């Protein structure tokens, strides 16, 4: 019986009768010219009622804008039970009787980080089994209205909405079905489940939960940044898919703490050994660096310069280019393995606790994408289910895959072309910076000139331009990736996300990392020497050289700008954009009293959380993971920056989900999907990249070779290293196209200077092998290759040993899974026997005394036969 609307709370999540819960809401605007839309809505809503759903419409006169209708949907018990059976949703049948002996050592230390028990454990632990409607009395059903939680209810309703047709009878187009198509063609303006209350206060309806309020109070506020996450409550409210994301993000952040601590120690080691940096003293010394005249770094516009002009960059380079860096690169290779292996164990525990064991098979077989069912008109027999199902012909699949691959290659080529453009900018602008700043660095008198060299100015501006290009390309190819994935028509939601994941990561990988790969592995490696320089684009732009202190400091600059810029921009965008859009969208409702602003109207004014919303959250974190692993040898503080970012990221995401977005449709996921394979691939690649960075980008190996093999001083010393690492060239032999123009040389340069130095190991002029590589060059190259081989083998050996030692699934979880499966079989067996006994008794047979305990060696059917 309906109650007076004036007496019903506007914050209510129930129908007007105050009994039936609103499981889903559709909104629409009744246009004057929308007769076709009205017809679609009438047929669609009629078919929803045929499917068993109950509907109630709020007239536009009741809405705050005066033109929006709200269709409220309720799923009664019969519908929920039927589709819970279809979707094989696991429900409790027995309280968990396995004692939990897990005790954390020194548990009292974690007390400040804990949340109240009623928040961390919102429901008791049960043994569960897939729901079977015909055996509903087998399960622990106390109240049919609350047996299925709201997240499960909205998942079931959305399953129906996504497959319900909007054609009339058998005469319409049978491909026209599903709420997604109705949203795309404007028949409905939105479709969403309701939040249970306002986030800043508890629900005024005593029959309704206040889980959103609890999530905001204990999870989404930034002051809770040091507290644990209420994962069980997150899972209960948002579903397992979102719960798994926050579990992974929290675990990743915890593991980052250890990497950040070791990175800070390595950085401190660089600071403490600052005074022991002998080669920097030589560079900065007037007697050594002040007397070494270096060859021009570019054609025409660059003059000769003195080595001591790079004094500051040499000192800065030592902070990251030291023995501690080698140790940290090896440590991170092992850390990555520990992170992935321990996450597998954590994931296995969540799979059991959240009833996700064997879920992937269910999703693959049962939950086809509505788009796949609509676009695939061909049908064939499924050998497993023995039912006719849609399928995509192999010829069509191959053609779509080839077109998709060609599109991906085209966009990757476009990204590489943009990066080459940035490289061309670096080559072209260096000469301009060198010409403008020629007086300051050479005289080494002005503070600004001594701090900002042409190399640094070029690197910083190029990094900033590259970051802008990255952001622009992101906006473009996100849509392209979605378009080509839609074109492939994936079969299931899991397959769709995996395909999109691979494409987007390939794009992002090339987009974000290509500039770092250039600085790390190409810049300064193919330069030539003053008499025979290497050029890009014919003979116009000379390839860049590294600073005498090495290219590592430039790689550090590139990494810091791109990584920090992405993280800061990402957090601002995630927090500010939804808030501004909600503020603007709800501007009309702010003039109404709160009592006239219904629950569905409040949620309607929030931002919609799309199907791919969680995908972008994963993508952001995986790109960050690449930064802190692939290039960490150049910047040990990268894990610390990532740790600070992730502490903010967790709370920003929590605040965004809880306050700025409509409640997402609950979805199940047993893992982080294709991201796990991507993380494993990045982990393996990181060992290789860091080994090459230490060997070829830093000066660690040449210094060690000099120290132990070529040091002229008695014992182990770095004295004379700078002079030994620079080759000599005769100025008169410099080609005209490379010779500085008049006025470009500094005032101290005169005709008495006949030679200049350059960074290489070549024979001097006058030698029978002049300007060819010396044996020292080959010795250093051999040492670099040996280091790469040894480091890779050591790290991979430790990685495989650690992976072998740590099982993916904890032993107690295996035992509990086996125990649950055994109990399911046993209880179902007993249930069938008791049911048969009741049937026999009702039919007048004598009471059956046969039980499984009397015949323990017999199967269920044999016991029943014996009983009969």
TrEMBL record:
Stored Pfam families: Anoct_dimer, Anoctamin
Transmembrane segments: 245-272, 323-343, 408-436, 456-477, 625-648, 672-697, 785-806
Location(s) in or outside the cell: Cell membrane; Membrane
Keywords on record: Cell membrane, Coiled coil, Glycoprotein, Membrane, Transmembrane, Transmembrane helix
Gene Ontology cellular-component annotations: plasma membrane
Superkingdom of the organism of origin: Eukaryota
Classification via InterPro entries: Anoct_dimer (IPR032394), Anoctamin (IPR007632), Anoctamin_TM (IPR049452)
Coiled coil: 34-61
Primary site of residence: membrane
UniProt topology in membrane: Multi-pass membrane protein
Domain Anoctamin transmembrane per the UniProt entry, residue ranges: 234-820
GO MF annotations in UniProt: chloride channel activity; protein dimerization activity
Residue ranges of every copy of the Anoctamin dimerisation domain listed in the record: 14-231
Similarity comment text for this entry: Belongs to the anoctamin family.
Protein name (Swiss-Prot/TrEMBL): Anoctamin
Organism from which the protein derives: Myripristis murdjan
């Amino acid at each position: 019986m309906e109650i007076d609307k004036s007496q019903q709370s506007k914050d209510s999540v129930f129908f007007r009768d105050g009994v039936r819960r609103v499981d889903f809401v559709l909104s629409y605007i009744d246009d004057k010219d929308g007769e076709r839309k009205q017809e679609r809505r009438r047929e669609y809503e009629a078919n929803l009622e045929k499917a068993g759903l109950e509907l109630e419409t709020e007239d536009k006169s009741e809405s705050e804008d005066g033109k929006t209708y709200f269709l409220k949907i309720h799923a009664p018990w019969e519908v929920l039970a039927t589709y819970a059976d279809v979707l094989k949703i696991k429900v409790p049948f027995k309280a968990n009787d396995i004692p939990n002996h897990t005790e954390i050592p020194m548990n009292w230390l974690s007390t400040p980080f804990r949340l109240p028990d009623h928040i961390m454990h919102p429901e008791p632990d049960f043994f569960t089994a897939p729901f079977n409607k015909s055996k509903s009395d087998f399960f622990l059903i106390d109240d049919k209205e609350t047996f299925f939680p709201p997240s499960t209810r909205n998942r079931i309703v959305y399953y129906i909405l996504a497959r319900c047709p909007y054609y009339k009878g058998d005469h319409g187009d049978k491909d026209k079905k599903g709420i997604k198509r109705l949203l795309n063609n404007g028949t409905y303006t939105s479709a969403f489940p309701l939040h249970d209350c306002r986030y800043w206060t508890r629900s005024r309806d005593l029959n309704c939960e206040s889980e959103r309020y609890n999530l905001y109070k204990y999870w989404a506020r930034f002051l809770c940044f040091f507290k644990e996450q209420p994962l069980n409550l997150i899972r209960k409210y948002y579903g397992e898919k979102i719960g798994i994301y926050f579990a992974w993000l929290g675990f990743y952040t915890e593991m980052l703490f250890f990497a950040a601590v070791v990175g800070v120690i390595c950085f401190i080691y660089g600071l403490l050994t600052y005074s022991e940096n002998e080669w920097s003293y030589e560079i900065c010394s007037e007697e050594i660096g002040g007397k070494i005249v270096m060859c021009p770094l570019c054609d025409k516009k660059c003059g000769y310069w003195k080595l001591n002009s790079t004094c500051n960059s040499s000192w800065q380079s030592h902070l990251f280019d030291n023995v501690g860096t080698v140790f940290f690169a090896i440590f991170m290779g092992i850390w990555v393995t520990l992170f992935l292996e321990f996450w597998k164990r954590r994931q296995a525990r969540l799979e059991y606790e959240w009833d996700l064991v064997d879920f992937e098979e269910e999703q693959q077989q049962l939950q086809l994408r509505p788009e796949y069912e609509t676009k695939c008109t061909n049908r064939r027999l499924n050998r497993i289910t023995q039912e006719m199902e849609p399928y995509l012909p192999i010829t069509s699949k191959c053609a779509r895959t080839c077109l998709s691959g060609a599109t991906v290659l085209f966009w990757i080529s476009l990204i590489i072309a943009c990066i080459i453009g940035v490289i061309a900018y670096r080559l072209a602008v260096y000469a301009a910076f060198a010409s403008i700043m020629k007086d300051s660095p050479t005289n080494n008198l002005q503070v600004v000139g001594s701090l900002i060299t042409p190399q640094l100015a070029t690197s910083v501006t190029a990094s900033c331009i590259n970051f802008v290009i990255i952001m622009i390309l992101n906006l473009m190819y996100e849509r392209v990736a979605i378009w080509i994935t839609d074109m492939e028509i994936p079969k299931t939601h899991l397959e769709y996300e995996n395909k999109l994941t691979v494409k987007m990561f390939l794009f992002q990988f090339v987009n974000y990392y290509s500039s770092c790969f250039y600085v790390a592995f190409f810049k300064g490696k193919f330069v030539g020497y003053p008499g025979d320089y290497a050029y890009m684009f014919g003979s116009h732009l000379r390839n860049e050289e590294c600073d005498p202190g090495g290219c590592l400091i430039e790689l550090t600059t590139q990494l810091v700008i791109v990584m920090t810029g992405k993280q800061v921009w990402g957090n601002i965008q995630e927090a500010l954009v939804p808030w501004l859009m909600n503020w603007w969208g709800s501007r009309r409702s702010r003039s109404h009293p709160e009592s006239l602003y219904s629950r569905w109207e409040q949620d309607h004014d929030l931002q919609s959380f799309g199907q791919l919303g969680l995908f972008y959250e994963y993508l952001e974190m995986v790109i960050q993971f690449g930064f802190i692993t692939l290039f960490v040898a150049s910047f040990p503080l990268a894990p610390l920056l990532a740790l600070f970012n992730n502490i903010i990221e967790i709370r920003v995401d929590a605040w965004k989900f809880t306050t700025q977005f409509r409640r997402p449709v609950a979805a199940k996921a047993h893992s982080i999907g294709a991201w796990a394979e991507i993380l494993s691939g990045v982990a393996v690649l990181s060992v290789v990249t860091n080994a090459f960075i230490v060997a070829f980008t830093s000066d660690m190996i040449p210094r060690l070779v000099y120290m132990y093999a070529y040091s002229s001083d008695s014992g182990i010393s770095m004295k004379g290293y700078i002079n030994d690492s620079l080759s000599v060239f005769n100025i008169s032999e410099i080609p005209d196209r490379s010779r500085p123009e008049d006025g470009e040389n500094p005032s101290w340069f005169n005709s008495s200077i006949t030679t200049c130095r350059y960074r290489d190991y070549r024979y001097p002029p006058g030698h029978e092998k002049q300007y060819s590589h010396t044996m020292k060059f080959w010795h250093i190259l051999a040492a670099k290759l040996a280091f790469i081989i040894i480091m890779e083998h050591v790290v991979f050996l430790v990685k495989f040993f650690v992976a072998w030692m740590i099982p993916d699934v904890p032993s107690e979880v295996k035992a509990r899974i086996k125990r649950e499966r055994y109990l399911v079989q046993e209880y179902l067996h007993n249930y069938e026997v008791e049911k048969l006994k009741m049937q026999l008794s009702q039919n007048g047979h004598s009471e059956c005394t046969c039980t499984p305990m009397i015949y323990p060696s017999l199967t269920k059917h044999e016991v029943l036969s014996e009983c009969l």
